[in-house]
């Protein structure tokens, strides 16, 4: 197992994510905040609390998971497909790295980015829902 290769791919993807933080972090947070506002204001007022759980608190976990799953697939696939279209994937394919090590690097970075996004959205949800 080439740990240095996995670490290099992981760090490269994390740095790419940091360069595009507006598209990778701010856009999903704003989108989810709009869901909170629209569904909380439009539907939440009409829905009674069930067993002490308000409608806003009920939809928070679902909206967090929606963003996490969408962005994990989007970030992971973009990191692989963009170099393919740009023609720079051959640098990775010609390196002495196994397919498992490549997958571990990309999946690890996508999972880390998704967890960070989920935590930021959960913190943002506290502004809208008690």
Q: What is the count of β-strands?
A: 0
Number of helices: 5
What does the oligomeric state look like here? single chain
Along the chain, the helix and strand elements come as HHHHH
Shape: elongated
Q: How many independent structural domains?
A: 1
Please give the share of residues in helix: over 70%
Q: Characterize the main sheet.
A: none
Question: What structural keywords apply?
Answer:
mainly alpha; 130 residues; 82% helix
Notes on the structure:
By secondary structure, the chain is mainly α. The protein has one domain (3-47, 54-128). Helix content is 82%, strand content 0%. α2 runs antiparallel to α3 (55-86).
In short:
With 130 residues, the chain is mostly helical.
Topology:
Layout: H1 3-19, H2 21-43, H3 55-86, H4 89-93, H5 99-128
Helix pairs in contact: 1-5, 2-3, 2-5, 3-5
